[in-house]
Write a structure and sequence with these properties.
heterotrimer; A mainly alpha; B alpha+beta; C mainly alpha; A: mainly alpha; elongated; C: mainly alpha; Cytochrome C Oxidase, Chain A; two-stranded parallel ribbon; 2 strands
């Protein structure tokens, strides 16, 4: 993984205020978001984070399948 | 003393930020003219409120072409008078004092907000424009019935307003 | 630096002092638990989800919550931490343990007295009550034992400060040419401004409120006693903050794997707090009649400058963390963040507490903004702000560093460090939800300090979302915080019940990149800084206080006492009379 598990948990924790505040910012820009939509945004952001963190492990496995290089 | 370059940068930026904040507030004071509640009101003995020429009959009184004085007694647990009506597009001078403990007079959704302290008269001048109804609450804990303290400030269209002094 | 001939845990080096610090910490945690429980009950009551008691009695919840958390929890932890800091850095035990246990006893006894009077407010049968909130503004009146309890507690804390001075004076005689070690310097400067600032509230309580609550004087000048409270009331928040800052300066760099960026700047920060923390009190009274606008403006300027030591701290703390991260192998512009010990709750708790403090600073700047203050005064915005400062920067730092202190004080390993990490993360997330909702509710005008923010004649209009949604967010946040508290207490209890181990790190604190030898000697001149602090306080307060006294009189008139503990009897008596009259008619 690109970051440690502890680091991952901390980044997810720090995303919570970012998503909450982002919603308030959007409201001031004219975009209203319901709680469900905000939750979806949070899920997408966390999903992206997880994908980024785990990516090298997946790519690494693929490379070894393709033989030595 | 050895101060790192970045730290000197940061220190300068911090000072600039602080000065900017001070200037902003100063602009609010002298530029826009938002005055703070201060000591221009008189002192008063809470036990003699009902002998005061104005507070003994609290209410609205016209004192100028578009200027009105409002005297309000604040007590546990009500504003007297509870509902205040003033005409649109006028200047309203609120005069408030407490008969008992410390209260506040806070017009919800606006910046008309003042502490009301027994022994002191709080004076706040507000400009009201279009007709609207505002809730007024006490936001300074004043005893067991504090959460029931609620009043109203109604800005009525000028034609509707009848200035008959106290209600 | 590891000091002394016998490296080893703090318990090995100073067993008697360790016992004292354990006592202060356990008292602190007991207060934390009860205070947190009150918080949960409050939040459920306010949103009308669960009202276990009538709203009239809610104010006893609130008084207990505040007094236990911001006086008992914080200050007991503070005296423990500073005792650790002084003894460790001077490498010398306390001068007289009997004296030490006496001040502990004063603090404990005072807290119990005050606590019992507050709890009496829940029970009509008990003639004790102190539903006056943590600010106890006259003419709201509490039972005399409440004021006496608070006075004993504060005096006990003064004696604690003097204890550290005694250690320093004794050490100085034996080490006349040495600079004051940084942790001791921090404890001493904090003690100085604590004594200076609490004089205000001490005068209010001893000269006015206690005699008045006993019936010896008739009335007090409400504005005067309120102003004397706030003389103390702003400096006290720095009192809570200074031990957290000390830990960020001397513990966090070491845990990050490195050294403190600059000892001299740390001294400058603490000197700035010494001289500036008290002459800002009137910014809590921007909306008070009876105080001239000129005084309020000066105080606004002072307050804005008080941002400086916190902004400097932000730099030093982050720089120290970066240094530590690079020592651990971190590279890159931001990549070094990854190399920090995020699995360690001691580190993560402090880092998140510091991060949240930055947000708190910004909402504080709004509060300080004199004419902007009209919009937020006495609303829930203010409550959101201080839950970020004392509720997170201070409380979370205290809980996180407990995971380092407890082994040092008991010789036992932390029962479960992963749970510790979960606990600090839960606190951060819970506080995010709760504090964000409080800030937004406050902007809509929703008040603080009320049992029922539901009114009949109008609706609150939040900018984003609805009141119902804000309520839900607050309840979620408050619940997470309570769960985090319970988890913390569980970890502490299970750790204490464990067995001793040999594998603990030695006691010590961070070394510095730029050390005390780089700090100008004048920084250590405590008499000079104390003198300047007193001069600034006199400048800030002499005229306003003189004006208040000459306008309103030293003893009022300020309204007759609103004794909370007699209220119920009066109401009950009246109700009985009325119903008798009804029967007779």
């Amino acid at each position: 993984m690109r970051i440690s598990r502890g680091g991952l948990l901390v980044v997810i924790a720090v995303m919570v205020p970012i998503v909450i505040e982002l919603r308030t910012v959007f409201v001031h820009l004219g975009v209203d978001m319901s709680i469900a939509e905000t939750g979806l945004l949070a899920a997408v952001m966390i999903g992206a984070l997880l994908a980024w963190a785990i990516a090298p492990d997946i790519r690494g496995r693929k490379r070894s399948n393709e033989g030595s290089e | 003393m050895n101060i790192h370059t970045y730290e000197k940068f940061w220190l300068a930026a911090a000072m600039a930020l602080i000065v900017a904040f001070i200037l902003t507030i100063t602009y609010g004071t002298v530029g826009i003219g938002v005055a703070m509640v201060d000591d221009s009101g008189e002192t008063i003995n809470p036990e003699e409120i009902n002998e005061h020429p104005k507070f003994s009959s609290p209410g609205v009184e016209q004192v100028g072409e578009n200027e009105y004085d409002v005297y309000i007694q604040v007590v546990q647990f009500a504003f007297l008078p509870t509902e205040v009506e003033v005409p649109a597009n006028s200047t309203v001078n609120l005069h408030l004092t407490s008969r008992d403990v410390i209260h506040s007079y806070s017009v919800v959704g606006t910046n008309a907000n003042t502490m009301v302290i027994p022994g002191e008269v709080a004076e706040v001048t507000v400009n009201v424009d279009e007709p609207k109804e505002y809730g007024v609450i006490c936001t300074e804990y004043c005893g067991s019935g504090h959460h029931n303290m609620e009043g109203k400030l109604t800005v009525v269209p000028e034609e509707e307003f009848e200035s008959e002094g106290s209600q | 630096m590891s000091l002394g001939a016998n490296s080893g845990t703090y318990l090995d080096q100073f067993p008697d002092e360790a016992k004292l610090i354990r006592a202060t910490f356990y008292s602190s945690f007991a207060a934390l638990f009860v205070g947190a429980l009150m918080g949960l009950l409050q939040v459920l009551h306010r949103v009308d989800m669960l009202r276990l008691i009538p709203s009239e009695d809610y104010y006893s919840y609130l008084t207990l919550h505040a007094v236990l958390l911001v006086l008992t929890f914080t200050i007991f932890f503070l005296v423990g931490v500073f005792t650790w800091g002084v003894t460790t850095s001077l490498d010398r035990g306390l001068e007289d343990l009997r004296y030490t246990w006496t001040w502990y006893g004063l603090m404990a006894g005072g807290s119990l007295l005050a606590g019992i009077t507050i709890i009496g407010g829940f029970f009509d049968a008990i003639p004790l009550s102190a539903a006056v909130l943590y600010t106890f503004y006259a003419p709201l009146q509490a039972h005399p034992l409440f004021y006496i309890g608070l006075a004993l507690f504060i005096v006990g804390s003064w004696f604690a400060g003097i204890d550290w001075f005694r250690s320093w004076w004794a050490w100085k005689r034996e080490n006349p040419d040495e600079r004051i070690p940084l942790p001791t310097f921090m404890a001493l400067t904090t003690t100085l401004f604590w004594i200076i600032s609490s004089l205000g509230v001490a005068i209010s309580v001893v000269v006015f409120l206690i005699p008045w609550s006993l019936g010896f004087i008739d009335q007090v000048n409400a504005l005067l006693t309120r102003t004397l409270f706030w003389f103390f009331g702003h400096a006290v928040v720095y009192f809570w903050l200074m031990p957290a800052y000390m830990l960020w300066y001397v513990m966090l760099p070491k845990i990050s794997g490195g050294k403190l960026f600059s000892d001299p700047l740390a001294r400058v920060v603490f000197v700035l707090f010494l001289i500036l923390s008290t002459p800002t009190g009137i910014h809590h009274q921007y909306l008070d009649p009876g105080i001239a606008e000129g005084f309020k403006f000066i105080v606004m300027v002072n307050t804005m400058f008080l941002l400086l030591p916190s902004l400097l701290t932000a730099f030093t703390v982050v720089a120290s963390m970066e240094h530590g991260a690079r020592q651990r192998g971190g590279t890159g512009y931001f990549g070094w963040l990854r190399a920090l010990p995020w699995r360690d709750p001691v580190f993560t708790g402090m880092a998140l507490a510091g991060l949240m403090f930055a947000a708190a600073g910004f909402s504080g700047m709004i509060n300080a903004g004199m004419n902007i203050n009209y919009l937020v005064h006495n609303t829930w915005w203010v409550v959101g702000h201080f839950h970020l400062t004392v509720g997170t920067a201070v409380a979370l730092t205290f809980m996180a560093t407990t995971y380092w202190f407890l082994p040092q004080l008991t010789g036992k390993k932390i029962w479960n460090k992963s749970l510790g990490l979960a606990q600090v993360l839960l606190w951060f997330i819970g506080m995010t939800f709760m504090s964000n909702a409080m800030h937004r509710a406050g902007l809509a005008g929703i008040p603080r300090r009320t049992a029922e923010p539901q009114y009949s004649g109008f609706d609150f209009q939040p900018a984003a979302g609805s009141v119902a949604e804000l309520n839900m967010q607050v309840v979620i946040g408050g619940t997470l915080l309570f769960v985090s508290t319970v988890l913390f207490i569980a970890i502490v209890v299970m750790t204490i019940r464990g067995s001793k181990v040999d594998t603990l790190p030695a006691n010590g604190y961070a070394e510095t990149l730029s050390g005390p030898e780089d700090a100008p000697l004048v920084l250590d001149n405590l008499r000079l800084w104390a003198g300047i602090a007193i001069a600034l306080v006199v400048l800030a307060y002499a005229l306003p206080l003189a004006s208040i006294i000459s306008r309103g009189g030293l003893f009022g008139p300020g309204g007759s006492p609103s004794p909370q503990f007699v209220d119920t009897v009066v109401f009950a008596g009246q109700a009985i009379l009325d119903s008798l009259a009804g029967v007779v008619r």
